[in-house]
Amino acid sequence: MKIKFLSEDALQDLRANFDSYKEYYFKQDESWFQSYFNKDGAVLESNIEFTQPKFSFNPDFSVSDCENVKAMYDALKHLTVSQATQERLWTGLAHMQMRDYFFFRLKDDLEKKNEKRLKSALYYVNGTKRSLFVNVLARLWWVGYMTYDETNQENPYWLTEFFCSAEFSGRSVYFFSSNFTGNRTITKGILRALLTLSQEGHDIKRAHFVEAGRYLNISGGAMILDMLEEDEIKEMVEARIRKVFQFEKQLISQ
Predict the structure, then answer these.
(1) How far is CA 194 from the centre of its chain?
(2) Whole-prediction pTM value?
(3) Angstrom distances, CA of residue 10 to CA of 28, 34, 36, 122, 223
(4) Average pLDDT, integer, range 72-82
(5) SS3 of 44, please?
(6) Is 26 helix (H, G, I), strand (E, B) or coil?
(7) d(Cα 63, Cα 201) in Å, to the nearest integer?
(8) Alpha carbons 93 and 5: distance in angstroms, whole number
(9) Do residues 104 and 57 share a domain?
């Protein structure tokens, strides 16, 4: 099948008249969705072919989020970065061809009538870069894109699985919102370092992701990070976080 996306007029109408339409989302009113998106000019069909992802609907999001990152990226790996930044693409998929996943992942927020989360899940309300990791569909593709390791033929999702192992929503936002993590080489170097430490038995928490980012941000003032190899990033981050663990151990022993 081909990807369908929203016309600019439809996107602006849905955004501008959110208060008028929100009850249809809370009620998951299929008749309204069918009626609205069958209107002339509301939907455009692209030339992008894709196979519908086989999403996991496991209510344990620590399981299904990871599986759905893989499903989304496998299905749409051929998107260009430019295409994958388009709000009309992800908003269109959420309203139409992937509406079942949208309803599944937002089930609790829809039941609670959480308007703020509904808007951020559908539309870019946080600036483009941050919104890519807040939007309920875009974040699946982008986490897949940023963590996929094509050099690992046995399991190219080994870093994805580590990243998604805890705090998927929170990690996605705070880790990928910084400028340097837009570089896949840097991202994979960081994740490889933290995974190595995790496999040694260290408890990797949000603070360690934050510290890795802070350290590289400081280091970026003295060197051009984009010129470093993945292994060099790994070594830098691993050494830094080992010092953090040593400091934490000293505090506990005092």
Answers:
(1) 19
(2) 0.93
(3) 19, 14, 9, 13, 46
(4) 97
(5) strand
(6) helix
(7) 21
(8) 7
(9) yes
Number of domains the chain is built from: 2
Any idea what the Cα angle at residue 62 is, between residues 56 and 64, rounded to 5°?
A: 5
Query: Does residue 250 have a pLDDT over 90?
Result: no
Residue 227 per-residue DSSP state: G
* pLDDT 10s digits, 114-150: 999 999 999 999 889 999 999 999 999 999 999 999 9
Instruction: For the chain, give the longest Cα–Cα distance.
Output: 70
The reply to whether 143 and 185 lie within a common domain is: no
pLDDT at 21 over 90: yes
> Could you tell me the CA-to-CA distances from 16 to 21, 33, 148, 151, 211 in Å, in that order?
10, 17, 36, 45, 39
The percentage of residues in the chain with a pLDDT greater than 70, rounded to a whole number, is 96
Are the C-beta atoms of 160 and 69 separated by less than 8 Å?
A: yes
Domain hosting 217: range is: 178-254
pLDDT at residue 17, rounded to an integer: 97
Is the same domain home to 74 and 197?
A: no
Where is the domain boundary, 116, 151, 186?
Answer: 151
- The tens digit of pLDDT for each residue in 192-241 reads 999 999 999 999 998 899 899 888 888 876 567 878 899 999 999 999 99
Is 212 within the bounds of a domain? yes
Q: Of all helices (H) and strands (E), which one includes residue 79?
A: none
Whether 101 and 68 have beta carbons less than 8 Å apart is answered as yes
Q: Which two tokens stand for residue 182?
A: 């837009």
